[in-house]
Amino acid sequence: MAEKxxxxxxxxxxxxxxxxxxxxxxxxxxxxxxxxxxQALAEWLATFATADGSSVxxxxxxxxxxxxxSKATMCRLLASLETLGVQKRVGRFGGKNGVAIRQLNVPxxxxxxxTVEVSDSNLSKSQIQSSKSQIHxxxSQIQSSKSHVGETLPPALPPTNRPPTAHEKTDGGKSLSQKHPKVAFxxxxxxxxxxxxxxxxxxxxxxxxxDTEDYTGVKNVPAAVFAEKxxxxxxxxxxxxxxxxxxxxxxxQARIDAFVQQQIDELIAKNRAADEKHRxxxxxxxxxxxxxxxxxxxxxx
Length: 301
What we know:
elongated; Arc Repressor Mutant, subunit A; 3 domains; two-stranded antiparallel ribbon; 2 strands; mainly alpha
């Protein structure tokens, strides 16, 4: 029982760490999603660790099965945790091709937020008065800036036609992940990737269809939906097949239209050539009549 209590220490340490500590400088504006995924993975790994964070050895396939992520996504998250110093591989269990053994490191996340305290005895009265005067000057500048804020604000940016992401709320007041929590919970990153390739309405329609399906006996519904061979990839394959079919139909129709237009152009050119030949023959006949009977005969006929 005492050993179990010690093993829970690592879990508690990771649980009490905010997700902001998992941020990387290269994450970009969607860093919160990446940080939350790293936090979820680190907290789950901590459940396998001893009190000092050692002896963590779940396999990558086990991690993928638990979270419903692909192997590439899992390897990327493990690499980012190693960059943060949260975990590192220290060996393998069962030989060269065995499962990796990992070491967790909590102290790297425990950044002190305490401020530096300055003793009043180290400040002279003149320094205190100088600081007060600077504060009053700053307040006057702030008030002056507020009075002109309406004049200095730039014009509002025009609205864009960009479709919403998985996090942004739609006209219904809910985001895409909120509209379909049963099948899309925790899959915002995968949804954003799909929205870049497919229209918002297409993804929304497919998730609506998946909401109504039977999941009896399925423990992790989002994992079953988003897995590499899950239900959503099957529906997306149908969408791609229909797209390819429509593209083939458009290409076939374009070839037919081009052939018909070619036949029409050839017929028009043939008629124009026949008209020109008839005109030349008529002109030559008139010239022959004029040579034999004179111009008056041509005029009479």
